[in-house]
Automatic annotation (TrEMBL):
Domain spans labelled TauD/TfdA-like: 3-252
Keyword Metal-binding tagged: yes
Enzyme class: oxidoreductase
Record's protein name: TauD/TfdA family dioxygenase
Length: 259
């Protein structure tokens, strides 16, 4: 059995767990930890891509973001890397692949190369973001949806590029309400609002969600595996001042509820 140490304002350290193929009971407990804490950090893991995939498959059907670069020999994983770039990557707070009807419930990163300095990943608590909104704002948002659209990827004609999801998302395991949105460029419309008002509302909600007191900053170390629940957190990579190679392998698990 693993131990859980809560972090603030979101996330938990999971100790005593080896990333790899897990039994159903352990996966079920991890699902509950993710539903409660949003992010789990598992340090000191000696796991390769085969073991990482076995771990992910325990949570359900894997999915891949079309247009991303797959890990050689592991088509269900993609590479996130700054190697060979003349300019740093850019990242804003977002949820992964929310422009499809069935977005990922979970995303996980395996640290392959960790830079000497920088390259942290930041996470927000979207339960807290919802709960700390003024009551009249929550009332206005109830029942509304945001239309999420793809940005920055060249997709084929047969790929999904747009999907609507509730702004107030009830998590299927915790039963709590999370503020579900993404970076403003990916939020094309809010149901029942004009284009201009929708843009102002989304901008306000993102600013509210990403306040410093609502953000966990994770500093990567060799052997780290981090998993998060896209239904109750947003995230972004901080590429400012990175010194050294930053290479991550990413896997995602589709949501078994939404379709």
């Amino acid at each position: 059995m693993f131990e859980v140490r809560q972090l603030a304002p979101v996330g938990a350290l999971v100790e005593g767990l080896r990333v790899g193929a897990l039994d159903d009971e352990t996966v079920g407990r991890l699902r509950q930890v993710l539903a409660r804490h949003g992010v789990v950090i598992m340090s000191g893991q000696c796991v390769d891509d085969s073991g990482f995939l076995a771990f992910l498959r325990g949570f359900g059907e894997l999915m891949f973001t079309a247009g991303e670069t797959p890990v050689p020999g592991f088509a269900d994983l993609n590479v996130i890397s700054n190697v060979g770039r003349t300019t740093p990557p850019r990242s804003n707070f977002h949820v992964d692949t929310s422009y499809v009807r069935r977005p990922p419930a979970y995303t996980a990163l395996r640290a392959v190369d960790v830079p000497r300095h920088g390259g942290h990943t930041l996470f927000t608590n979207q339960y807290r973001a919802w709960e700390t909104l003024p009551a009249h704002v929550r009332g206005d948002l109830q029942g509304r949806s945001i239309t999420h659209v793809v940005t920055g990827l060249d997709l084929g004609d047969d790929e999904e590029t747009s999907a609507a999801h509730p702004v107030a998302l009830t998590h299927p395991l915790s039963g709590r309400t999370a503020l579900y949105l993404s970076t403003p460029k990916r939020c094309a419309a809010v149901s029942g609002l004009s284009v201009d008002r929708a843009a102002r509302v989304v901008s306000m909600l993102v600013a509210h969600s990403t306040r410093e007191d609502n953000v966990l900053r994770h500093q990567w170390r060799p052997g780290d595996v981090v998993m998060w629940d896209n239904r109750c957190v947003m995230h972004r990579a901080d590429h400012d001042g990175v010194d050294g190679d930053r290479v991550m392998h990413r896997g995602m698990v589709a949501d078994s509820v939404r379709a």
